[in-house]
Design goal:
There is one protein chain. By secondary structure, the protein is an alpha+beta fold. It folds into 2 domains: 59 residues; 69 residues, SH3 type barrels (Roll), CATH 2.30.30. Strands 1, 2, 3, 4, 5, 6 and 7 form a 7-stranded antiparallel β-sheet that branches. A hairpin with a 2-residue loop joins strand 4 and strand 5.
């Protein structure tokens, strides 16, 4: 018989991995103006407009005076933004330092949780003298 139920063990094992997924990515600034007439940015791109509004786009193409792309979130509409209205463009990339740090911390927390459960179950099994 196992001390931890099967579902709880699965949750404790999966929690560090799920937490690490969010820390795997960060955003880095990309140049908006380019000497190339037509530039394609295939990976997701976060665009900050002049009014402060942010949107995440995929399949972004920068051509002459406009930025074109599809919204990452539903309804996945096609967007065209004049470059004069774009304050910042950031591309998503893997951040190895944050990924390792988050994975180590969440794994340590999971082990601490399991150790606490094991100690409590051992203590409850010992009868007082």
């Amino acid at each position: 018989m196992s001390i931890l139920p099967s579902r709880l063990r699965t949750l404790v094992a999966a929690l560090p991995l799920v937490a690490a997924l969010g820390g795997c990515y960060s955003w880095s600034r990309q140049p908006v103006a380019s000497p190339e007439p037509d530039r394609y940015l295939g990976k997701p791109v976060r665009v900050t407009r002049a009014d402060g509004a942010r949107m995440t786009l995929v399949g972004v193409r920068i051509d002459r005076d406009s930025l074109f792309g599809n919204e990452e979130a539903k309804p996945h509409g096609r967007v065209a933004i004049p470059l004069s209205q774009v304050r910042k463009v950031e591309a998503r990339h893997v951040d190895p330092f944050e990924t390792v740090a988050l994975t180590a911390l969440s794994t340590a927390a999971a082990f601490a949780f399991v150790a606490t459960v094991l100690v409590r179950s051992e203590c409850s099994c010992v009868s007082p003298p």
